[in-house]
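Sequence, structure tokens quoted for completeness.
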Amino acid sequence: MNASQIKPLGREVLAELSLTPLFAGLSGDEATLLLSGASVESHPDGDVLFTQGDAAQGFFILLDGHVELFVEETGRNAVLDVAKRPAVLGEAALFIDGRHPHSARVVGYARLVSVPRAPFLAVLDRRFDLAQRMLGSMSVRLRGLVGQISELKLKSTAQRLAGFLLGLTRKEEGAVTVRFPYDKRLAAEALGMTAESLSRALARLAPLGVESRSENLVAIADIGALRAFCIEEAEE
């Protein structure tokens, strides 16, 4: 792992962290205590943050960009997720056996807070209330992962893609044009598809006013119609 730029934490970053589930509700002094020795790192595309099986030196909080989480199985990489802000990455290794259960690689660009293991755990040893809050945050994340698994099991490929596209905009109605935040191959793997099945899913959404365009753009004619399709029962 080679961060292209490393900076100390500032007030603006602490303010950003106060919006994440892990630090929500903490006072400035409590957050500062927990983040002793932490720094802000910027990483370019392809940087590996940590590797499956390696001993964890700390964990990361994603402020901007995307990070691919994957495991290696029989010589191939299986994508678990493509994390975005405000994801916490690698924290499970701090509480299991000290080793990362998966690998993490930057997609495009990422700005993260790097939190060293030893001082963070030392604070948690003294402040059980803070440890409880972190466990609560981890339970929220677990529920999110269970939700993702349910989506993969219960929704069709077209519905999963529709949900992904809706997640790329804050608009609630009308028309919008969105852009895939990373290449379609990676998006397909994160959604449990092949590149070919993603193309077929896009074609299935065409009658709903979804049009794939050049430069990874997708035009959505009616957000409401796409949302309604997304929550229909999956087809057999």
